[in-house]
Amino acid sequence: MKKSSHRGRRTGSKKKWSAKVTSTSNAMDLEKDIFKSGNPEKIARSVKHSAETSKRRKAGPFQSAMSMLNFYLNRAGKNLSRKEKEPIEKAKNKPRKLYGREEK
Q1: How many beta carbons lie within 10 A of that of residue 49, not counting itself?
Q2: Quick one: how far is CA 57 from the chain centroid?
């Protein structure tokens, strides 16, 4: 049996799966431009609220909040400057505090 030579190539739509997740996931219903706010505390509170109000999440609110932050950094991160990434990186520590999961 002959193997396909175009392995790994996308066929059909050129849209990325991450765009679909961003546009259709209830968990991604964040304040408009929240990641551009530059305020880690505000970003974390918004992500927490979004994770808690989502009806379609597969994990608990804490894990969903952390996943949203990581998803955004992983997908948009390569197009962000260091200055733009910094508040989002700092916001990753905030949900631990907001959910009472700080390390001792």
Answers
A1: 16
A2: 13
Show Cβ contacts of residue 72 under 8 Å, excluding neighbours closer than 6 positions.
Answer: 35, 88
Report how far Cα 3 is from the mean position of its chain's Cα atoms.
Answer: 36
Local structure of 96: helix, strand or coil: helix
∠ CA 90-95-96, rounded to 5°: 100
Residue 33 burial by Cβ neighbours in a 10 Å radius (0-12, 13-18, 19+): exposed
**95 Cβ partners below 8 Å, 6+ apart?**
44, 47, 48, 62, 65, 66, 69, 101
How far apart are the two ends of the chain, measured CA to CA in Å? Answer: 58
pTM, whole model, 2 decimals?
0.69
Q: pLDDT tens digits, the chain, 104 residues: what are they?
A: 555 555 555 555 566 766 676 666 655 677 888 888 999 999 999 999 988 888 777 888 899 889 889 988 888 778 888 898 999 999 988 888 888 887 65
